[in-house]
Amino acid sequence: MTEKAAANGVIAGVDFDSLMKERDMMSRANYTYVLRLLGLYEIEGRTTCKYGLVMEYMPYGSVYTLFDRIKNVPWALKFQILHQVAMGMNYLHHVLMPPIIHRDLKPQNVLLSKSLDVQLTDFGLAKNETSVSLSRSMAGTVSYMPPEALISPNYKPTKEFDVYSFAILTWWVLSGQEPYKDVNGEMVMLIFQQNQNQRPEMNLVNQWINQKMVSEAIRLMQECWDVVPGKRPIFSAIIKRTNEMNVAYSGEINNDILKVLDQLKEHIMSQSQISGNPDGGIGLNPMPSNSDNSNTLNIRNFIKLLQQTKSEEIHSRTVNPETSSQDIKDAADFLILNLPKIVQAKPDLSEVLDALFSKRIIIQEELDMIKIGTIQDQIRKTLRTILNKGQESCTEFLRLMNHHHAELMTSLKEDII
Known about the structure:
- By secondary structure, this protein is mostly helical.
- The chain folds into 3 domains: 3-55, no CATH class; 63-253, Transferase(Phosphotransferase), domain 1; 288-416, no CATH class.
- 54% of the residues lie in helices and 7% in strands.
- It has helices spanning 3-8, 16-28, 63-69, 75-95, 147-151, 159-175, 185-194, 203-206, 214-224, 235-248, 253-275, 293-308, 311-314, 325-337, 339-345, 350-358, 364-370, 375-389, 391-404, 406-416; strands spanning 10-12, 37-44, 49-55, 100-101, 110-112, 118-120, 127-128.
- It has a 3-stranded antiparallel β-sheet with strand order 1-3-2.
- Helix 4 (75-95) packs antiparallel against helix 6 (159-175), helix 4 runs antiparallel to helix 10 (235-248) and helix 14 (325-337) packs across helix 19.
- The longest helix is centred in the middle third of the chain and has 23 residues, at 253-275.
- The radius of gyration is 22 Å and the shape is globular.
């Protein structure tokens, strides 16, 4: 799968068996930090049929795209990315049964949602741990593959494969550069055959050693790329350490995300002016603004939808399947537009979370993670989780907010109207 195809929500042009395999993998991996599969499409030709996967739209492309577009990605966002990748991999390795080994974890396969949360993608190489072939597999990106996979003719991919890839991804996020730059895959293989201890240049990450939490990240990275696979930590242990790094920046993350979103929007607008493409490449209407009349009208329509819903129905009903796609889109726009104001208001979301849990919109593991940190941290995590769940979840969340926090919702609506 190409990054652009994934970002635009469609995979096409691969053989049917591979497509069905990837569909099955993505269907199993239904989690906050894993890209959501929406369906399968078929186009009939004169002699053949073409198939593709339809996935949730990712307006900002991948982590690779982010670092290419933003000169200095804030450290708070860097550590959030690492933690969310680790959370996604922990789900694949230690929650799913049988576990899924990704085998192609790299920046291009870490997409970003409209709120800049991680969405792992490209399960074309993924394997159920119990069904991995014993034959040698050279699939994947060589620079992110562990040395044991490059030197053994009978290598069987294990969870340690992904842990090593996570270490190289960490090096990439800290350094902002590609490992073994200007060295082709065959040369990287040759290097590892001669020296299994070879790793990317440490000077490029050690230069940031005085930055908060970088030394901790380097220590974890080096453990994850240990030459002995059995000595590498597992993701259930990794997430505890990445969470500490992430929490250390909790006071900065919200403002940093808003700044980065503004920069991405400016980049997309400038590219659209150059290319004449109103979508600006990957991004399509990525962030509503107060000056965007069309978005304001859409949100006003959604406010009418909320006002028409009886309060006694809100808490008990699920999303109406007849709700229009435009109404659902407006819910997500409304939530993104008002995210900072909701966080600042510090509403008690306990009853809302209980309702979301009872409706199975969020799962226990997500609920446990949400409840870590300050009240504002918990609200931010709730909002991002709901945005990543999809448009219908945004609609249900706002219906619940309208019931439990009517005064806050009224003030937000008045600001727009």
